[in-house]
Amino acid sequence: MKLGFDESQSPYTSGTQKARAWTEAWVSAWAYCPHCGNAKMSQFPNNSPLADFLCGSCSEEFELKSQKSKFGAKVADGAYKTKCERLAASNNPNLLLMNYDVKSLSVINLLIVPKHFFVREIIEERKPLAATARRAGWIGSNIILSRVPESGKIHIVKSGVVRPKDIVLEEWQKTLFLRNESPETRGWLLDVMKCVESLGKRDFTLDEVYAFERHLSDLYPGNQNVKPKIRQQLQYLRDRGFIDFVSRGSYRLRS
């Protein structure tokens, strides 16, 4: 996989337009579908509502966001209403996030957030554009990346190093069980997964996850039975092979 951009691919003079042309051309030429491993993804026409790329083998769709700096806690996205409507759709796109270096004109990081990690809780409504704006009243959205578990951030390229394709495909398959659940059910699962991952170790106890009770209560103020809900999510994650039951009150993250 070549990480450098081909400067001749861009007919534009604007830096922003050049960057878009370079990054999109790079994905078309070098990226592969993490769902089926297909080595070629086709590009949608410009200004498609949400998706930018399509895998011709398995029909997975991808939206590309690229920028020079690393992505922070939030990622600006398209129209809020459209994004919410697409959450439960089968063709809701996966998210490709690319960081590039303008001096070397090359990819530094490329990670994928699979679409089954997208739930209503990670989509934030932005303020309407001012009356003086060209699209006055338009309401955009933010993706709250900080609420996505680390298992939902799969790197193809990390710090300028291409990761082995077989590992990327394995990490993708590891969480596909989430697609069988509704967005509402997935919200709790993803937040408990993030709590478990934040402990920073493979072996953990039920009491350690219970320590997030107040945090989860703040996220779901309508739920008055947080501890039973935590146990329910851990049982589900165990049944789907994401974690292992070690002994009473003890669990282990699958590697």
Describe this structure in words.
- This protein is of the alpha+beta class and 255 residues long.
- The chain folds into 2 domains: 7-180, PvuII Endonuclease, Chain A, CATH 3.40.210.30; 184-253, Arc Repressor Mutant, subunit A, CATH 1.10.10.10.
- Helices cover 29% and strands 24% of the residues.
- The chain has 7 helices and 13 strands.
- It has helices at 15-30, 80-86, 165-174, 183-198, 206-210, 213-219, 226-239, and strands at residues 41-43, 53-55, 61-67, 74-79, 94-101, 106-113, 123-125, 140-144, 154-158, 161-162, 203-205, 243-247, 250-253.
- Strands 1-2-3-5-6-9-10 form a 7-stranded mixed sheet. A 3-stranded antiparallel sheet has the order 4-8-7. Strands 11-13-12 form a 3-stranded antiparallel sheet.
- The two termini are 26 Å apart.
- Keywords: Endonuclease, Hydrolase, Nuclease.
Q: What characterizes the major β-sheet?
A: 7 strands, mixed
- Just name the CATH architecture of the largest domain: 3-Layer(aba) Sandwich
- Record field, number of beta strands: 13
At CATH level 3, the topology of the largest domain is PvuII Endonuclease, Chain A
Name the overall outline.
globular
Mean pLDDT figure: 90
How do the strands line up in the largest sheet? 1-2-3-5-6-9-10
Which CATH class of the largest domain?
Answer: Alpha Beta
**Helix count?**
7
Q: What class would the helix/strand composition place it in?
A: alpha+beta
Separation of the first and last Cα atoms: 26 Å
Report low-confidence residues grouped into runs of 5 or more. Answer: none
State the order of secondary-structure elements, H for helix, E for strand: HEEEEHEEEEEEHHEHHHEE
Share of helix, binned: 25-40%
CATH superfamily of the largest domain: Dam replacing family, catalytic PD-(D/E)XK domain
Number of domains: 2
- What fraction of the residues are assigned to beta strands by DSSP? 15-25%
Our Rg estimate from Cα atoms comes to: 20 Å
Organism: Bradyrhizobium valentinum
InterPro entries: DRP, DRP_C, DRP_PD-(D/E)XK_dom, WH-like_DNA-bd_sf
Domain Dam-replacing protein HTH: 184-252
GO molecular function: endonuclease activity
